[in-house]
Design brief:
single chain, alpha/beta, Rossmann fold, 2 domains, nine-stranded mixed beta sheet, 8 helices, 11 strands, globular
């Protein structure tokens, strides 16, 4: 089975204090530590596990600037067979539809049975996977937390739905799935794996290689634009707990007891 996994380089929230910039139109990106998007990491692990069972190969693709190459290599060190970087100044400022348009062009250059994305990335929209499936005219499922290969034509997938319930469906291949965290346990990436892929050549495709008209993507082609970033003010009656982890946990337990949440 040939699987393509879309991965993104995002600010690592565990390593950064995220703040809005002075202009209020983005976050402050100076000196941020970046890593692969958490949801995408689960998608790559799932792809590797599927190929280990049924054979085939895993290709990871990332859309970004030249620095996004680091997440492509990281996922190859994890076990993906191939990597592709989509980078072009014309891609900067793309909205969700623009990103899906670029990824569609990349998909068209291969022959994939299954395309995986994370359920969402750092913007939280969770829209690119569905848009990509629609543009490719392929079946789509979101929030997927289990995959079983039935045969060469179908998958059985589980989806996390409202109320903590599980929905099971069969879906035809080829298809696009957006992967939820918790579907597996992503493997550790060691120094040996990183060294193994350090010198592997990663192809870089821009608008011309993908056959895209630059005006159709990027900020020029975007129909949706972000105009304001802000930190929501605490609601009325909100209380911010401060202290160490143990101190906060103790305070929270006392509050829950006082409110009748615990006995």
């Amino acid at each position: 089975m040939e699987i393509l996994v879309c991965v993104k380089r995002v600010p690592d929230t565990a390593e950064n204090e995220i703040e809005v910039n002075r202009e209020g139109n983005d976050i402050r990106r100076d000196d941020l530590v970046y890593s692969v998007n958490e949801w995408d990491n689960y998608a790559v692990e799932e792809a590797i596990q599927i190929v280990d069972k049924v054979g085939g190969s895993v290709t990871v693709v990332s859309l970004g600037d030249e620095e996004a190459e680091e997440v492509v290599r990281r996922e190859m060190a994890m076990g993906a067979n191939n990597g592709i970087l989509l980078a072009d100044e014309a891609f900067e400022g793309s909205d969700g539809k623009g990103l899906a348009t670029i990824l569609k062009a990349a998909v068209a250059k291969g022959n994939y049975d299954l395309i995986l994305t994370g359920a969402q990335a750092d913007d939280g929209a969770g829209q690119v996977g569905g848009m990509l499936a629609a543009m490719l005219d392929m079946p789509f499922a979101s929030l997927v937390n289990s995959i079983e290969v039935l045969d060469g034509q179908k998958l059985k997938v589980g989806r996390e739905i409202e109320g903590g319930n599980q929905e099971m469906n069969e879906i035809d291949l080829p298809c696009v799935l957006s992967i939820q965290t918790g579907i597996n346990e992503p493997r550790y990436v060691g120094i040996r794996g990183i060294r193994k892929v350090a010198s592997v050549e990663i192809p870089v495709w821009g608008a011309s290689e993908l056959g895209l008209v630059p005006e159709a993507v990027g900020a020029v082609g975007a129909k949706a634009q972000r105009v304001d970033y802000f930190v929501p003010a605490p609601g009325e009656g909100a209380e911010i707990l401060e202290g160490s982890t143990d101190e906060i946990a103790a305070k929270l337990i006392e509050l829950l007891k006082a409110k009748g949440g615990l006995k």
